[in-house]
User: Fold this.
Amino acid sequence: MARIKTNKDVTRREVITKAAATLFREKGYKAASMRDLAVKVGVEAASLYNHIRSKTELLHDVCFNVANRYVEKMHAVESSNTTSIEKIETLMRFHIGQMIDNYEEVYVSDREWRHLNDPYLSNYRNQRRSYRKRFAAIIEEGIQKGEIKKIDAPTAVLIILHAISGIDSWHRSQQKISAEELEKNMVTIMVDGLRQ
Assistant:
């Protein structure tokens, strides 16, 4: 029987989770099967259950791995001794980098999270809401300090996050600019749009 190929820095579970993210993005969570996943990692479907309990568990892992990275970054940015504009730029660059470098996982966590089961669904929904509020609070602080134009902060957060999720079309493009150029252009457009 074939074994899941790993290297010393990656566990079999991590290989399976990454393959699941790719599969969920390609087919959608509902349409993807454990058999499809087994083919993707090169093993029999039954042997997957030595490493994971269910497809639902894989979706949980993908979504919360991404959410935890975002929450950790938000905490670091909030506690940094920088201006509001610099905090927003740091968060934007982080989001763009995640969408470029961890595309499959970020895409799935952004589009397929609704298939989580409670209590995880409620927990994830609350984390998303809390994250957006914290992002908006940085913008509101910048408005109060005169660094940022007087705008509706929650709307600004939605626009920023939706623009970054649009990097999906960059991944699918046949003729695309480099990741560095993409990041530079997006940050310039969005940060300058906020700046007072």
